[in-house]
Amino acid sequence: MKPALRILLPSACTRLTAVLSAALACGLSGTALAEAPAVTAVVPAGGQRGTTVDISSVGKPGTAPLSVWTAEPGLKFEPGEKPGQFRVTVSEEARTGTHRFRLYNAEGATAPLVFVVGALPEITETEPNNLVTEAASQELPRLTVNGALAKAADVDIFAVPLKQGQTLVASLLANRDLGSPMDGVLQILSPGGAVQVRNDDDHGLDPQVAFTATEDGTHYVRLFAFPAAPNSSVALSGSATYHYRLTLTSGPFVDYVQPMAIGPQTEQVSVFGWNIPEELRSLPVSRTDDAEETVVSAADLPESVSLPVTAGPALVEAAGLQDGQLQQLTVPSSVTGVISGPGETDGYSLALKKGETIQLMVEARSRYSLLDPLLTIRDAEGKLLKESDDEARNEFDVNLAWTAPADGTYTFQVRDVFRHGGPRYFYRLSVEAVKPDFGLSTEAERFTLTPGTPLEIPVSITRSRLASEISISVRGLPSGLIVPPVTSAGKGDTSKKVTLQLSAVAASAVAGSYPFEVTGLAPEADEAVRTAKSPADAGGYQTRRFWLTVLPVPPVVAPRP
After folding, report:
1. How far is CA 35 from CA 26, 28, 112, 379, in A?
2. E strands, 228-304, where?
3. Are the CB atoms for 186 and 244 separated by under 8 Å?
4. What is the pLDDT of residues 324-344, one digit of tens each?
5. Running DSSP on this structure, what letter comes out for residue 254?
6. Closest CA to 374 of 342, 411, 416, 430
7. Cβ atoms 83, 155 nearer than 8 A
8. Which domains does the chain have, with CATH numbers?
9. What is the pTM of this model?
């Protein structure tokens, strides 16, 4: 039998030609179809120190292979069984708290993602648990729950047995660091189901409650949420992106430490919070010479505390001062204090010369204190010279540059603007000399270089009493990538914004992924290097470690004969 003769009609020929042309345009390798990872989070969002955790990506993992980059020690990521899955080994020495990492492939990278290292045992929330009768009992209330309010009107309830006089701390991490688009609410219910205490916002939009039981019995922790971005609805909210970590503990939990900064002579800090045993009330401090921050932690504490390292003394509010006595400050210095009762005002004195300009800052709400600070400045006769409240709209701390009108000793007073007070109304008042300085920022934190096309990186400059030139450059990239330094002039257009031009000598030799930094140097700013920051993400995080993806050179497709 003769083979059948197949005849392609014109329309079929046209379709076949189109398919072949599309395949050739893609280089028959899938390059044009390859995708960068579009991952917004991982679940669970953390793990206990000294354990191994399997995590999954939320979003699209993109084209394999997918790799992980992090500068944090103590975390080891290994690929899982499916795309976007990883096994994370958390070492015993890993720092508790938030760690940042990126997922990347040949096409691009994610924004910095969050993995939280905890010190307590961890469990995964299981449904159903919307009702008190469905709540699983947590026999040992020292744990962290990884969960999600996964649908509209979802409510999660956890049963916790407590003894009379026992203090339970329930602290939610969701919107602030995980970027969950939720405004959570926590309630503690009595054994009979009555609401004992409730909190909406403690650290940002995330709630926290500390409750001391007045009776023996099983109490209930109830969690629900509204959308972080208000809308016309007044109903409870939830979605697959409402991920959270809920710490439930009757053990030690840190609220803050004193001092709230590390000065040259600081050797230890005092710990304040709930259920703090005597051996944890004072913790040693370690630092490196060039560090801008240092971390204070202990094995039994759920999270570490990050503190700024300062050049001047880091003081603590003096106790036992007589009426009319004021604690003396110097320039530079900082002091940590507490407005411990309603109507209380703390006062400090500082000697200044006429025309001397200082920068005064009161940090409170930014450190999750309940204090809404008000700063007043008076002269030696008690005359009010200046009063400063909020730094900006929705920013409740004080940041003020002030110039002394004459030689003399001035009084600086701190109180709550509504004259409230209590043990959680803590603050840090810092005094610094105003010197020429500057800051750098970019419009993005991820960049892609396409072979044959130069990449532009706009950099914005903010100046403070600085009129000199600033040299801006890039560090961390391989030698095959060319980024000439640029100069920001003291005046004119470039004083506020410049553009770095990035190109490659041979794109094929440097195709890949690279973390890098944008830095600036100005002689009049004490020759100090300033590193550019990215825009803040949903949780307010800004990174200084940017990411560059250099795409591979597309394959050459031979013309059809």
Report:
1. 13, 16, 18, 64
2. 243-249, 253-258, 268-274, 282-284, 293-296
3. no
4. 789 999 999 999 999 999 999
5. E
6. 416
7. no
8. 33-118 (2.60.40.10), 122-249 (2.60.120.380), 258-308 (no CATH), 314-433 (2.60.120.380), 437-550 (2.60.40.1930)
9. 0.88
